[in-house]
Amino acid sequence: MRVGIVGGSGYTGGELLRLLCMHPKVEVTYVTSRRYAGKFIGDVHPNLRKLVNIKFEEYDVTLASEKCDYVFMAVPHRSSMKLTPDLLDVGLKVIDLSADFRLKDKVAYEKYYGGHERPELLEEAVYGLPELHREELRGARLVACPGCIAVSAILGAAPIVASFSIDPERIVVDAKIGSSAAGREATESTHHPERVGVVRPYKVTGHRHTAEIEQELSMVTGRQVKVALSAHSIDMVRGILSTIHFFLDELPEEKDVWRAFRAFYGNEPFVRIVKQKTGLYRLPNPKAVVGSNFCDVGFELDPHASRLVVLSALDNLVKGAAGQAVQCMNVMEGWDEALGLNAPSIFP
Amino acid sequence: MRVGIVGGSGYTGGELLRLLCMHPKVEVTYVTSRRYAGKFIGDVHPNLRKLVNIKFEEYDVTLASEKCDYVFMAVPHRSSMKLTPDLLDVGLKVIDLSADFRLKDKVAYEKYYGGHERPELLEEAVYGLPELHREELRGARLVACPGCIAVSAILGAAPIVASFSIDPERIVVDAKIGSSAAGREATESTHHPERVGVVRPYKVTGHRHTAEIEQELSMVTGRQVKVALSAHSIDMVRGILSTIHFFLDELPEEKDVWRAFRAFYGNEPFVRIVKQKTGLYRLPNPKAVVGSNFCDVGFELDPHASRLVVLSALDNLVKGAAGQAVQCMNVMEGWDEALGLNAPSIFP
Amino acid sequence: MRVGIVGGSGYTGGELLRLLCMHPKVEVTYVTSRRYAGKFIGDVHPNLRKLVNIKFEEYDVTLASEKCDYVFMAVPHRSSMKLTPDLLDVGLKVIDLSADFRLKDKVAYEKYYGGHERPELLEEAVYGLPELHREELRGARLVACPGCIAVSAILGAAPIVASFSIDPERIVVDAKIGSSAAGREATESTHHPERVGVVRPYKVTGHRHTAEIEQELSMVTGRQVKVALSAHSIDMVRGILSTIHFFLDELPEEKDVWRAFRAFYGNEPFVRIVKQKTGLYRLPNPKAVVGSNFCDVGFELDPHASRLVVLSALDNLVKGAAGQAVQCMNVMEGWDEALGLNAPSIFP
Amino acid sequence: MRVGIVGGSGYTGGELLRLLCMHPKVEVTYVTSRRYAGKFIGDVHPNLRKLVNIKFEEYDVTLASEKCDYVFMAVPHRSSMKLTPDLLDVGLKVIDLSADFRLKDKVAYEKYYGGHERPELLEEAVYGLPELHREELRGARLVACPGCIAVSAILGAAPIVASFSIDPERIVVDAKIGSSAAGREATESTHHPERVGVVRPYKVTGHRHTAEIEQELSMVTGRQVKVALSAHSIDMVRGILSTIHFFLDELPEEKDVWRAFRAFYGNEPFVRIVKQKTGLYRLPNPKAVVGSNFCDVGFELDPHASRLVVLSALDNLVKGAAGQAVQCMNVMEGWDEALGLNAPSIFP
After folding, report:
1. In this structure, are residues A205 and B300 in contact, taking their beta carbons and an 8 Å threshold?
2. Of B281, C48, C314, D285, whose CB is crowded by the most CB atoms within 10 A?
């Protein structure tokens, strides 16, 4: 299948290229970049030298329609909503990695991102989380891949909100995030001397991913939940750990929580339940997933504070972005869901 | 004044030496180390070469009594309770950096650390947090310096629990901690290839510092509070950030929270209230305190989730250990509290 | 083909498993570990959870002969020379990643590693660098994979010593090395607080890899060369950069150096000549190869000092160890040399 | 004494402020910054909050002359040559941290930096390396502080070129450098995801500091030496290690090299000779000097390659810039040379 990437010079674009060049059913035929049009891809993504031998091109909808069957959108939010409708109109399938089509509620979109120009597409777009929307993904024309923190929070929390009477107004998601999530543009906040050795609370309240997490968890549980999300930048390139603190009047037993996770993820190819008695990696840790499409989830019970803590770890550029997108494509096409996504994490 | 350090070869011991060699009223006359007795201090702490020119010695209570007026105990918990009583008996003042005398309640001690051999000293020992116990420190003979996470959590939370009707059973302390807190002994968990790039949930529930945090906050507020503490090892050498999530039925106004912090810390030499509208360092971040004795505290209000988030940052080896101990000594002696502690953090 | 790994719990063993589980012609049937026998591989290598589902076993030559056609030896030097002969005797092919069979000259072995117990095998063993020994590898029974620094130094220097009249007694190899090269055992030197922020000259003179570098370069050039190797540990997990300084009475032109590299590596699947006019990655940098089997080589001419500088970058665990070993196996079997080794580096 | 800093918002400016606020004889009265004029210094240098309570001001020569006795110039090269002459004209003493007055030879300046506008000052300026120019510094009016790599290379090499018949055309200086040396401006090359895990050869040939290193070493030895300098960016914030490879027809004995270093540095307050038989810090390593004004030097002899290797480590912002400048001021004023510079490195 012929696949295009709109916005191929950033980290998400590069990660799509890395994954797709190992995908046995796909050929990348078209990669756009305003800044690097005419340059070889390996000049921008040094890991792809000798492996991807095409050049960046200018974006053009006609070209896209001629060269591709599928398009991955790796452009900033608000850009995607301008380009995506035309791509759909020429019959392409679109997997969008921006925030533009994630929320069902245009008022919520407006609150966090500004007014939406094509709200009619919000209904159609499928939220690209196969673990919750696999059926809808088959046959979808427009898929909105979740935000990276959102994936980790939702996959960690869904089995709990679905199974237990947690306090739905006291869900703390404390997220720790690597620098690649900030994108490829050099900024003061990612200047190496300022980023090394930090724990920088960068979005303590009001984080945009709150909306999609609440949308999905409310869908799972059937009633409105509220998420208290705080995000911290740490000295790490790839990876997210979300620590999710739930309070319950009555704590479940450990085996019941196990059961809840197993029921949800028993057959999932990319969710691993990680909870061991000993060992350095007895609980989820981004270290064990970096570069792979896995989301590792685990938990502990805290009788002292009547609390259930869930840990959820993933690579923001893979399961939090490009890998998720490829997984969605695999589902949409009815292929083995793990095609092109089998490579283990690099460790250590 | 002549000062000794029992257990001078670890990171806390080294940090005491670093600070005390700049202290104008103190001479370090005795430093013990079983392993390095007879070696120059600069051979073990390479930063002190040419600055500290004495040798490690064997521990001996008579020698200590001859050579010192004060002793800092930088030995593991359970060792301190064996050695400290004898040092007190020969008339020395002792500032203990282990956990052995922090808890007033011997049952709590037993729960977290095992049976206490000298419980009668628990009552006498002063909890070495000048911000809460300054008066008691003057004239104290035995001071128990707080745990590093405890300092950050207590200093962050005290003004809030003292001033607002927070839910006292839903206080989440989500702590992110550097590797130096694990001590100088090489272990699997601090092996560089395994520690780089991690967010390792190492004590999600049941952390020992819970007891002292609850002890102090309950004292401040006059009723029992419960703390839901989770600690994460990250890829950083020095520093702790505690993110403290409180829930309130009614959120205070921002100026009221400011007022609460100012009332508590307006004249404190080593607590800075950090809350700006913009800038990379608008909120507390260990990066801005590393190497110094400051604890930076700040906050944000989250109307969406009816939450108040406090951030509290410090250097675990300074305000979380050695600097705190020196500050306590300054208070005990009636000196300027900042003597020897004026050096700014190294940045970047 | 059925493949075994002797010593599968270290980083090299883990890397062999990571690569072999993606190899289309190979099944890993036997992995030994004294310490972890009976445990699942994913409990020790957390990246392989759900991907490699067998257990570690005890080492036993009969078992090896029953279960495998090939054996990779990932044990310390001096252990390999004890085990390897028996494995050869039962008809297995052995690819050894230790230093035991790298040197043709047993006196040189003795100088750096101690007396050799099976010197008669030194002659037979093929030095596992396909770029120099491809023909000998086909049909080999015992292959000795090069040391990680040696690979980078030899691949960087070979085209130069082969083509230009460099001063053969003034070749400086200044190597910068990541912590994973020290192995999985936690030691003082890899304790995270001591390893972060260092440039530690750990082997300024007398590095063992000197012998194999000189052996190979002397073979290439036909006369004895002398290498002045210095190795530095830096704050990086994977990767080596060797900076190789050559002096010449008369500097060649740039195009001649290009030509020398092209002649050597024009068709090599895993050597990339990296030399661009601009860009962050215009010269070799471990960052661009980590996780992949590439060795990137490049150069600059310094007319001021009549010097030619070659840069050579690779991942010590891949092209410097496990990837190299798999490449050797592919050559030995007459397979496509890149089988199982196509995955790009993870970037950033 | 009243001291001003022109260009106080960068890392060098911040480091001057950090050191000067601990200096007992100095008051910082004037700090300029075009970008931050009117802002508190603690808003830009978060480590100085509560310790330095003045604001940035606009640059103005009259203001400088009114408010200061001394001025430190922490502006880019080519800016300094425009501002410095006026400051001298109004009677101020100037310590310049840019490259503008380091070279005696205006042709050399032109080659590396472009035409010089005030070449007549090149003769007067004293090269601010107290270890070589202490006498000239007393009474100097204009001091040119050396480049950071230059300090490490010169202090490492001077005793050797002064004492031994090394090959003067084959001196390799292989430098490894932290990111703070690149300044405070965020750039692509210091973008955290691109800087972590690198060894980036950023100036393999033609580095500007070559000129000053050769100037000083030729002065020491009395004949022209040539330096083959290559610089590498690594994943470290502060610090430089220069590995200096010398070749000699006849190697000296170890005690003779010791003697050469001792003769040079026996009484120097800020050079430590570091060469031990064992231990993690047996040789120089930036880790042991970061934050302090020390330059650690050590060496090894390599009979195999007839080579002498010198290691030289310092903190680029302290002994490589701001600390050096303060040391120069102390010498100029006839004060104890270590005033304000006594704080040990922070370790680990």
Report:
1. yes
2. C314
Please tell me whether residues B88 and B187 are part of one structural domain.
Answer: no
The reply to whether C167 and C220 lie within a common domain is yes
**How many domains in chain C?**
2
- Please state whether beta strands D93-96 and D142-144 pair in parallel, antiparallel, or not at all (unpaired): parallel
pLDDT class of A126 with cuts at 50, 70, 90: very high
Residue-wise over B167-205: b if at least 16 C-beta within 10 A, else e? bbbbbbbbbbbbbbbbebebeebbbbbbbbbbbbbbbbb
Spell out which residues of chain A touch residue B169, defining contact as CB-CB under 8 Å. Answer: 247, 305-306
Residue-range definition of the domain harbouring residue B302: 149-316
Closest residue in B to A203 (Cα) is B300
User: Is C148 annotated in the active site?
Assistant: yes
Q: Domain of A168: which CATH number? A: 3.30.360.10
Is C304 close to D206, i.e. CB distance below 8 A?
Answer: yes
The reply to whether B204 and B115 lie within a common domain is no
Per-residue pLDDT tens digits for C171-222? 999 999 999 999 999 999 999 999 999 999 999 999 999 999 999 999 999 9
Spatial contact of C178 and C112, defined as CB atoms under 8 Å apart? no
Tell me the average pLDDT across C271-286. 97
Which tokens hold the place of D136? 């000239």
Place of tokens 């007459």: C334
Which helix (H) or strand (E) segment holds residue B43: the answer is helix B41-44
Residue A234 lies in a domain: yes
Taking an 8 Å cut-off on Cβ atoms, the answer to whether D309 and C206 are in contact is: no
Same domain, C209 and C251: yes
Query: What are the b/e assignments for B110-129, b being 16+ CB within 10 Å?
Result: eebbeebebeebbeebbbbb
Query: Domain with A103 in it: what CATH number?
Result: 3.40.50.720
Q: Is D234:D199 a contact under the CB 8 Å cutoff?
A: yes
Burial of A135 from C-beta contacts in 10 A (0-12 / 13-18 / 19+):
exposed
Query: Rounded to whole angstroms, how far apart are CA atoms C23 and C25?
Result: 6
Please report residues of C whose CB lies closer than 8 A to that of B183. none
Region for residue C306 given its phi and psi (left: phi exceeds 0; alpha: psi -120 to 50; beta: otherwise): left
Each residue's pLDDT tens digit, D268-303: 999 999 999 999 999 999 999 999 999 999 999 999
Give domain status of residue C341, yes or no. Answer: no
Region for residue A109 given its phi and psi (left: phi exceeds 0; alpha: psi -120 to 50; beta: otherwise): alpha
Collapsing DSSP to helix, strand or coil, D122 comes out as helix
Q: Chains meeting A at 3+ CB pairs closer than 8 A?
A: B, C, D
Residue B342 domain-assigned? no
Asked if C11 has any chain B CB less than 8 Å from its own CB, the reply is yes
CA–CA separation, D106 vs D116, rounded Å?
A: 7
On whether both B238 and B302 belong to a single domain, the answer is yes
B302 and B178 share one domain = yes
Co-location of B172 and B111 in the same domain? no
Q: How confident is the model at residue B210 (pLDDT cuts 50, 70, 90)?
A: very high
Based on the fold, state whether residues A155 and A284 are members of the same structural domain. Answer: yes
